Amino acid sequence: MTKSTRYLALCLLPWLAAAQPAPLISACDRPFMFGFGTWEQKANPFKVEGGGIHIVAPSGQGGAGVAGLDVKLGAPDDWSPALTLVIGAANTSGTINLQMGDTDGTRHTYRFDLHGLAPGTPHTVLPMGGASLAEPFSRDEPGTTPGFGPMQIYMVIGEWITGQVDLTLQRITLVPPTPELLAARAKLREEKAQEAERARLAAEAKERARRDLLDKGAPHPADGPQVKLVCATAPDVLSMQVQAGQHVNNELKPYAAEPGDELVPEGKDKPRHLLRDGKVVDYYQTAVYRRVNNQRTKLGLLSPDGKQLFVEHGSVGQQLNEEVVDVPAAYRVSSDDDPAYKTAVAPTAVYRKGKPNGYSQPLPFLYTISLKLPTPLKEGATYTVGLLGVNTAQATVPYVHRTRQTRSLAVHAIQTGYRPDDPYKRAYLSFWMGADENGKMGNGTPAAERFELLDDTGQTAFSGKPELAKADGAEEQISVHEKADYTRSAVYRLDFGTFAKPGQYRVHVPGVGVSSAFRIDASAWDAPFRAAMQGILSQRQGVDLGPPMTAFTRRRTFAGAQFYQLDIPCQAGQEGTRGERMIELAKAGPLPRVDLQAGGYQDAGDWDTIGHHLSATYDLLGLYDLNPAAFAKIKLALPGTESTNALPDILDEALWQMPLWRSLQLPDGGVRGGYGDGWGCYPGETSSMLTYAGVYSPDPETTLRYAASAARAARVLANFDKTQSATYLASAKLAWTWAEAHGKAGDAIFDKVAGFDKGLAKNVRDKRALAAVELLAATRDTAYDAAFAQSTELTNKDALYLDQPEADFAYARLPKGLGDEALKQTAVQRIAKYADHAITFSRNNAFDIIAGHRTDMPMIFVSRFFSTPGAAGLNLIYAWELTHKPEYMAAAVQGANYSLGANPDNLSYCSGVGSNAERYPFFVDAQVSGQYPDVPVGHIPYGQGNEGNAMSRGANGWVQTWLLNFGPATKMTPNWYDWPANEQFVDFGRYPLHNENCFNQTTVPAACYWFWLANRR
Cβ-count burial of 500 within 10 angstroms (0-12 exposed, 13-18 middle, 19+ buried)? Predict the structure, then answer.
């Protein structure tokens, strides 16, 4: 095929030169409109030069194209697309693809062989197999109308393997058939016929195997999928949770060299980089090979210092055989106690849903298989479920229908608990079964007339009537931007807000089952608060972590590292951007060294400390104002002298990063934007291996963030350490003075930073208001009050959403006689107005998700609607503190309900908290060193958005393709996009925008939220 195609291309060149101009698909005289994969960031820079579009990409794992066309092809269907292109010197890619789509949805793909084409010379290349408009290489979508055209979109796509792409695409045309093309086309037709025959035979074999599984039964190997739970989810639905495959942790262990070990550099086309003595040094990942049982075996990857070995382990246990798992005849249900099941019967329908729960390969999956039964189950009866056609380790599993004892997947309650005086206490009844063998979705929520609270002796302590929150198929709203069915099932609210007796309870729905246990206790919010504080501690830079402070162990980061000054602000970008700038600067000579005190915090997957992390200090210090007594007495597990000094432990944590930021402050007051390594997390490496970092230049936004945090630190420290207080106040004033000089357009520093951040002026205004109110509170100097009046949103036209909620709340809380009383009242009114809106809007969704920040966040990644109390906003708490209206107290408790287990996944989004918590967060140090599951504690991810909406699809398509739907055994069932948004979180630590966090955006707000719930007055 390849040789004949090249031969055709060479034979046709003279004919093409003599023939009339071919119908033109594209002159390639304009840039592509979009890109994806490894071409996504490269699409816009693909320049039009050399007579066409110059495509330069690091690999063929991507593509780019143009949409919105209306090209009349003007050629018969037996004509073929042709590419006129020039191969670049750096090209190592062997094929290229052209995908064309017409206005009725037809999608065709054509492949072109690039082997043997001389660089620097134009070539007109014909499609492999002589593919034509009527007979493409592959027909991806048939469309609604026969034939192809007019063309609406075309994409140039790489071969989707490694290999650099360097070519100039000059024209895309159509050429008529020639004898050579027709011969190749006939051969392609023959090959496709053979493929079709093979597919037919394979389908017949598959059908025979299906019949055999049903007739003879599946094997039940010891390492087969394990049935972990059997429960009722409706009186006539029996559901089983099945674990297929088991996660196995990676290892990071000391490397002990042995004679004969081979150290083999890998990825020679992709060198890694580091800085040493101000110079950029390239190195390669090194693999270690050893003879094991007389076989050359790869042991793992060597750390940069050669002292540790990273071993990536695969999952163990068999995957689920999906051949007949959705077929009712694959199951039998029998009972000696229930006459309806004396003779074993098959269910009337089977529904299934499954998603990964771990990241080792192949991905382990947790499935829920629901059997719709012909008659309801009998209370107290024992049943046997036969798994005839399913390769589970168990051939049969027992189930006793005692619904006052058995946890049901359909009953959703908080997994921690409530204070007795919490005015909001609510559980839910709902169940989405997944899809049946025909792809039909199943609403499994039973109608309910009554629910109960059972105490720890099993006695009824409270009973109530369920309220229908949402009918099956009804739409909901969590964000103002969309309406959708976020549950795919009916939902009942089970309200027991008036119940206040301390104890341990479970929610019982008769005929169905009970929820996980929770407590009603004065200390109910203490456990999640302490877990979140441990999560904050676990993300410290510059300190050793481990017992007794944390179960998570890690050597200190940036210990002995070399720090180098950059000339770009943090707004320019993070890893990658830093690295590119380091390379550019190092060409002129060694980068200048700077002295820096390693410290601050890192994010879960990024090992840099950035200006926005200062919000962690600001927010934690704010707890003092909410309850000074509780702030002072709470004890935490902290390292070194922090556990024994005279400062409150929360204050110690709040101040942890401040010495670093003081060292980032220049003598003139400007605060540099943080520091970090250049190229991000290399596979197999941990943050403790870092030996260098680049330090950003100062910018007005970071400087004002620092001024606000330092001023608040000074005010709180005045109660405990007046010397430190004075130091931070002087530092805050100096930062303010610098920001005043460099905070407006026309200043050289401001304009340079604004070149990277078009929203800088607004960001500076917001942070100026925050710094002004904190300096006013710390100094009582009315000059800061005047500055606040200049920058506050409170003097603007009335608005629903708050851009400066922290500053508004801080100003409203100023003591009497300090600040403008009218502005204070405006702050109270606006915060209360938003809280009223949030409460009303939360009634639009069945699980009462309420946003304490704003309801106009789109339902995409990092929205935090599902994972973080109040969607990471404290406005509901602010509203209660300012007004003491009971409805705001109830709303604040409501904001913490979903993320701690009262959701359809029965999931606590805070690792280490609750009976079913997130176990595999995107936490690179823990992944590489193999500290899963349940370590570290206190990680709260960004969580899902609505993965099926257009905006999320654009961002997470690669996750769906390469992680959740690639290969025969690792597919989400149903497709991820078809899951209800409430259940789209995947606990597998592989999707940064979903499983990761910036600790100050999730964990810190949660800690503050739970502190207030635990210690409110």
Answer: middle
